[in-house]
Design a protein that fits this description.
Isopropylmalate Dehydrogenase, globular, about 350 residues, two-stranded antiparallel ribbon, 14 strands, single chain, 10-stranded mixed sheet, alpha/beta
């Protein structure tokens, strides 16, 4: 198995280094090739996603991606490399699982408990369309720079395949023992009547082709409130790109916050796995970033490559460390990234 490793910026190299160490421990036959992307790569080469990196990603069986620091202001020639990779590799399905954290003394940023009764019963997945919507990159300035316009791209093809992916996932979760499979179709068709109207129409057409799986539809603002309040009512949520980005971050608080949130970006025979916490420049270089999201990405990669036993070993080791420690500061501990990674490897 060949894996292209793209550490990126900020805490990306720190957490991905931990994930790579775990991957080597559990699957020593894996072939790893490192490549660069991100803001630092742009400053060095004038490209956030160099051609050599894209070629390495195409040649690999899968990609492990760390994080990139994108400037919040417009920089001529700069485009988000993760968005470009998703588009270039046609990784159309972003999969964000959230399982409730059930450690009563665990605290988020030391200030308030993560654990609550609703979080304990949370076991949901956000399935997010990954290639279009408001992230399609169709933005422009008009009126001499006084008016900014973004075009929201929704197509029948992309809508149909992401909803099919959601129903397939719900069926597989049911086969694995998840009771009462259900797909929640999230949109804002009451306001975005044309774009979300098309997404809703196509989604309901696909739903009708899967009568064995229950479905419902929900407006995105209502969905956000219910994900925050009662996450246990959801199984699989499917929605458009921006809505999925926001809802999955809302949901992740029930799983322990961004330090434990992982994602898979899937296409036809291709996959990219990334923690979703971003580059976190405020703690970069301090060695305190939580590596467990990146380590879960390694488990997801192994599972995708049909190495279920190895994936289960990684998850069991990570769960034991979550339960007994050590923990990084985001979970109320005082341990370093390296100490947590070593503890997982010792459990393996």
């Amino acid at each position: 198995m060949r894996v292209c490793v793209i550490p990126g910026d900020g805490i990306g190299p720190e957490v991905l280094g931990a994930a790579v160490d775990v991957l080597r421990a559990v699957a020593p036959d894996v072939e790893l090739a490192e490549a660069e992307a991100g803001w630092a790569a742009f400053q060095r080469h004038g490209e956030a996603l160099p051609a050599a990196t894209l070629a390495a990603a195409r040649a690999a069986d899968a990609v492990l991606f760390g994080a990139v620091a994108s400037p919040s202001h417009s920089v001529p020639g700069y485009r988000s490399p993760i968005v470009s990779l998703r588009r270039e590799l046609d990784l159309y399905a972003n999969i964000r699982p959230v399982v409730g954290l059930q450690i009563a003394d665990c605290r988020l940023q030391i200030e308030a408990p993560i654990y609550n009764l609703q979080s304990a019963i949370c076991n949901l997945v956000v399935v997010r369309e990954n290639t279009e919507g408001l992230y399609a990159g169709r933005e422009r300035l008009e009126d001499g720079g006084d008016t900014a316009i973004a075009e929201r791209l929704i197509t029948r093809r992309a809508s149909a395949r992401i909803v099919r992916a959601a129903f397939d996932l719900a069926r597989s979760r049911a086969a694995a023992g998840k009771a009462h499979p259900k797909v929640t179709i999230v949109h804002k068709a009451n306001v975005l009547r044309v774009s979300d109207g098309l997404f809703r129409t196509v989604a309901l057409e696909v739903a009708a082709q899967h009568p064995d799986i229950a479905h419902e539809e929900m407006l995105v603002d209502v969905a956000a409130m219910r994900v925050a309040q009662t996450p246990g009512r959801f199984d699989v949520i499917v929605t458009t790109n921006l809505f999925g980005d926001i809802l999955s971050d809302v949901a992740c608080i029930h799983g322990g916050g961004l330090g434990l949130a992982s994602s898979a970006n899937l296409g036809e025979g291709r996959a990219l796995f990334e923690p979703v916490h971003g580059a976190a420049p405020d703690i970069a270089g301090q060695g305190i970033a939580n590596p467990l999201a990146a380590i879960e990405c390694a488990a997801m990669l192994l599972e995708w490559r049909r190495r279920a036993e190895a994936a289960a070993r990684v998850r069991a080791a990570a769960a034991a460390v979550m339960s007994d420690g050590p923990r990084t500061p985001d979970l109320g501990g005082a341990s370093t990234t390296a100490e947590v990674a070593r503890a997982v490897i010792e459990r393996l």
